[in-house]
Specification:
The protein is an alpha/beta fold. It is built from ten helices and eight strands. It has one domain (3-217): TIM Barrel, CATH 3.20.20.10.
Length: 221
């Protein structure tokens, strides 16, 4: 498994306006170091208990992205160093991120996760919930949170037209928000969509961040 070659191959398919987040979950430090040595600096993890020891052990110029479901009781462990939390799926989580940010006087960057898949198991806001949140007075009080965009996960299916439709609907919503008056702490800058199996479709549909794991590190055990 040549991690460096995999990264170089991926970079040829990813346009300059799109960032590659290497999803390092379940992979050991050695493999992450290989990716780091190949020039990769953005890594994504989906569990706080795995992310913290990796942050401690690895170079400090790595940008760590939290891409898994965020539990409120775990926010405090990553608040001091996390670069971006992609998976904010409720106001409670946003409030907790703000609380932990205020304790250390740090503004924490977030994306709002939108439920676009047909599976029930995927987390996320509905479009209407996001519109309500952006209009709410409660959001204005969160001084240690900055929202930079949206994240979505397509349905796990072989039906690529469905995947494309889901990504397209998220991009449409993203553009709608981008062209609306937004609160001071909200910018529509990043659209995080696409994983190893569907990142090419996501890029075609306007993703600015793809979260790729197995196409870099190989299939997980």
């Amino acid at each position: 498994m040549n991690i460096k070659n995999n990264i170089n191959n991926l970079r040829q398919h990813i346009p300059s306006g799109c960032k590659l987040i290497a999803v390092s979950k379940t992979n050991p430090i050695e493999k992450i170091k290989e990716a780091y040595e190949a020039g990769q600096r953005m890594f994504g993890e989906n569990r706080v208990q795995e992310l913290v020891p990796k942050f401690d052990a690895l170079p400090k110029d790595i940008e760590w992205h939290m891409i898994g479901h965020m539990q409120t009781n775990k926010v405090k462990y990553i608040a001091p160093f996390i670069h971006l939390i992609h998976s904010v799926d409720s106001f409670n989580v946003l409030e907790e991120i703000n609380k932990q940010g205020s304790k250390i006087d740090r503004t924490i960057s977030c994306l709002l996760q939108i439920h676009i898949a047909e599976e029930e198991s995927k987390f996320g806001f509905s479009e209407n919930e996001v519109l309500e949140l952006l209009r709410s007075d409660a959001l204005k009080k969160l001084n240690h949170v900055q929202i930079f965009g949206l994240m979505g996960m397509a349905t796990f299916t072989d039906n690529l037209e469905q995947v494309r439709r889901e990504f397209r609907s998220l991009k449409t919503f993203f553009e709608k928000l981008k062209n609306s008056p937004l609160p001071a702490k909200v910018k529509m800058q990043e659209l995080s969509m696409g994983m190893s199996g569907d990142y090419k479709i996501a890029i075609e549909e306007g993703s600015t961040m793809v979260r790729v794991g197995s196409a870099i590190f190989g299939e997980r055990n």
